[in-house]
């Protein structure tokens, strides 16, 4: 320890600004005013406003790209009202279609079809929640796992292979497929965990590389006879037999399958794991301060491996939801962009199980609604990516949202709590 | 220490028996195993009676060389034996606790690559164009070099730049649009850095002002740029490609005399302006980062921001400037994807190159010349795969496509070892 | 240059670090700012140096009000500062560090290195520093790093030099040299503000003393004021400067360290063939300047690092090669030297911090399930027992003061039956009250029959606690001497001088502080002393 400490405290008893936990009640505003003040400074309000702000900016983009709006802008100075009207109609139609595709379709003739969108949302949310839970565990343990994409693919490969190759009794077959999926994802993530622990290789780089390798791996496998659908030259596997698929929850008319229940169960399990188990205690300890954890006898390297295995298993389950539930077949596009979307889901959910479930449903809604929006109003689904990333950015920066909406800031200036613990420094083995 | 007391040696006891740290055998073992594998697969089990043909000149060269052929099996065997000998040298030096020079891994790498090439092209009628291989490697390395330089500019100042991907994509987009609108590829080249700088500005704003984790901001900005460019592509560019997305390409400029040098002439000096800019940027940054006032301050902010603050250097301002500059450099690299070859912009066309650039930066140990070398290595791996897929080798194309990524993992896990990034990287500075 | 602070107030949230502080530094004066850890000295100096913006009050230079927006302004006004934690970039050379921020340049903004080297040499020669301008900071011992800091300040024409706890990292002899440098600077017209909590040094060097307590100026004093008087001013009550303890009754030697050697990744021998025993009921203090292998030694004993050779046996059981978890489970209590990095997890609750190493055992866990009730019950018990001042056991550790954080660490480490206690820098940065508490608990542990190893760079602490002292220099044990050995002898040994030679040299040349020690004779309840302390004070002040 010959080098000087980079960030000394001013004096032992003086906490640096922003780290003090003692909140001084600046003034005691009484009764209703205090409740109002608390509401205006709550993080829930900020979260809601972040979504609103993101949708507003998305609306600007929708309006800007609309032909009618562009036309009206041409004669803005003679009839400014036309521009506003055109913009309003473009944006409101797009968002109405988004809502209709995500939650409830008022245009549908029967109730069954009207509520179908919400089931689609939950279907899309399933892999997002599962992969997001895994990533969240990693984030809380200080590991920035970008590799859900590859882990989903590996989970899909394992689930698919067991599914279409073997002929087994229904419940057992499904169970084996699901276990296989978890193992596949865990295996892929485990590579990054072991390399991190043994050589210090940064998990961000390794997981990104593993994503790319997984993409080519699934493409390669689908070119082999063992994986290809008989009589086809396309990179598509045989369909998954009924014995290995997740049962549909609402019958034939809807795609929602038991994978969603797996996701909810996984969220409950994650809560228990992180808050109520010794394993989660170690995960959190290593994430918050690997040095202190090591000094207290927790093996940081072993924890890194376990965290990655757990995160990978969850992502693998997300792969199973795709292959055994939504798609019922293994294709090269099994993971779509769920692995990357799950990163934003976990960030938005602040790496907590409940938050991840809600964020997964929100982004599932954007995605499901986006498809309908593109079909009905021609607004490209890419706008969903914009809204999604803006939501995460705004939620990570509450002061920005507060200043946009001119909200009072909370009593004492506090550094925003990092969504992911800042543990850039490695612990040498 | 002026006092004589300080220099007094601790000679209270006789010298302790020399206990030495255990020798680490990883490197020589790895060299040996790979060379043996090559000897068996490329050499001993290689196709007998075949020849491998390599081309050297391009048709436009001043001096023409005819392609040459070598007997595949014999050549591969000899090359692998040479590599095995180098593994022996490494073993010997490790045992003597000496550190082998950098020549060893480079020579070893060249021998193994040639052994592989000889095996891969054995019996093919068409020659493998070596000059083309190098030229293509340099070409494919361009965005990686710019990206890696962008990364090191930011990280040397203490800001982690995961948003290289977004900066490249933004640069590619704006370059295409501006070049199309103005009809000038050079205008596109000027516009590209602006897009990258904007992404850099957002990165540094969220990192410094709102103290958001820098990796998060980077990842999210990548998604944002993909979303915005894809959206505009789908709504505007695709509707009227001729107005918006039909950029002219940069002309190839041959440097007189230099471009006539055999082999390296056409590789290095028959290129577009973007490549010449790249040469300049690498050289200038190599000098400026390590020897100028600007570089000293930049590095001090990334290593020990408080020390920099106490001598009056504005930490966050320095970080802001270098991150915006870094973003601009990456944006310029983005021009590679569109105006460098006169290609139209496409959705997500950077395809993860920003992340590879990040790996190149780490592999190059945060120095411009290291970044250049690492980027060239990745460019070579990438181009090799392209060339070999053209001449139909025994290896499935997907496996070839995986190699750059596998190489990166090995590089990050093995070659680099525990490198030392700037000490204050990723840590927000607040007083 | 005359420097004046008027009514400086600085608050951090609810905490008032500086409360209307007035201070006048006359030209050519050595002005000591005395106060215990946490009194607000460093905050005040950071305000003066432009690092913090004061909430109230003003700074006057030569009677003219000035406003410092950043350290650049303060430097331009002729104020230089040597920080307690050196503000040097470890991977830069001495010359680069010295010129950083006001670099001499040639064309194109390239640094003029010969000129930079010349600046270093000029000042280095003037004061006899012998600093190599091309050496990298990370390779230099802390004493030399401090000189680089002084060169850095002087090269910017500082007229007022602030030295923040400059002696914390020095041996008594180096401290003596530093005092010489301070006098030399004073003669050349530089004013010095000398921040410290060490009474002995203040009396040795200061022209005037200002004492602050809890952010307020509580008085000024002349250097002739007695130590006891200064101490009571500083702490606000009369303090007993020694630790109240009985004579050690060492039992059998249950800890045996043999031929321990640690070589780091760079090939440097951090610990070199170290052997020693510790007996039950004995406190062994390992003394030495920071960075002479003590950290590595304790980390090897805990299993955080593995040695190249050697063994550590506890009750006949080998510890080398075991995991940290096993070593802790074998009954080793470990108080790390850097509590905020290695001791506590800042965003874990106090209750969680109290079970960091025990979370997987009964009663805190059953299988892999944690038992929150048991965790809370334990926390309530420990914070009562160790007097941890906090509102709630659920509060994050980051809300605690340094002293209370250290109590949490001690409470955790002493909450199970120990066979060995290792405490590194147990009181670094603590206020006097906490120091007394920690020392008392450590002595209690000894009296329970536990072998105790203390690692400290503070001779005061070593002398207050040790039954036996091991001095380390460059990874080797220079000597194994009884507690209460003369501090000049220890100081020389800390600089690598063998024991008998050190005794001889100390007798010939007493340091200013060693002299003060004899003169003041603090009421230390005499530990069994065998110090060859025959020297008379030679240097009067």
Unreliable spans of chain C are: 516-541
Question: Strand count, sense and closure of the main sheet of chain B?
Answer: 3 strands, mixed
Distance between the termini of chain C: 25 Å
Rg measurement of chain C, Å: 24 Å
For the report, how would you describe the main beta sheet of chain C?
Answer: 6 strands, mixed
* Protein chains sharing the most extensive interface: A-B, 60 and 57 residues
Total strands of chain C: the figure is 22
What's the overall geometry of chain C?
globular
Work out the oligomeric state of the chains in this entry: heterotrimer
Shape of chain B: globular
Rounded mean pLDDT of chain C is: 87
Beta strand % of chain B: under 5%
Number of helices of chain B: 17
Order of helices and strands of chain B: HHEEHHEHHHHHEHEHHHHHHH
Structural class of chain C: alpha/beta
Straight-line distance between termini of chain B: 34 Å
What is this structure's SSE topology?
The complex is a heterotrimer of chains A (429), B (431) and C (541).
Chain A lengths: L30 H11 L1 H23 L1 H8 L5 H23 L8 H4 L1 H25 L7 H18 L4 H30 L3 H19 L37 H18 L1 H11 L1 H6 L4 H27 L11 H11 L4 H25 L4 H15 L1 H7 L25
Chain B lengths: L3 H4 L18 H19 L6 E5 L12 E4 H24 L7 H18 L7 E2 H27 L7 H19 L2 H25 L4 H24 L3 H4 L7 E3 L9 H6 E3 H19 L1 H11 L1 H6 L4 H20 L18 H11 L4 H23 L6 H19 L16
Chain C lengths: L2 E10 L2 E11 L4 E5 L6 H8 L7 E6 L2 E3 L4 H6 L2 E4 L11 H6 L13 H14 L15 H13 L5 E5 L7 H16 L3 E6 L2 H7 L2 E6 L2 E6 L5 H9 L17 E11 L5 E11 L3 E5 L6 H9 L6 E6 L2 E2 L5 H6 L2 E4 L3 H5 L6 H4 L11 E2 L2 E2 L1 H14 L16 H12 L6 E5 L7 H16 L4 E5 L2 H7 L2 E6 L2 E7 L4 H8 L4 H10 L3 H9 L21
Parallel strand pairs in C: 3-8, 3-9, 6-7, 7-8, 13-20, 13-21, 16-19, 19-20
Antiparallel strand pairs in C: 1-2, 1-4, 4-5, 9-10, 11-12, 11-14, 14-15, 17-18, 21-22
Helix pairs in contact in C: 7-19, 17-18
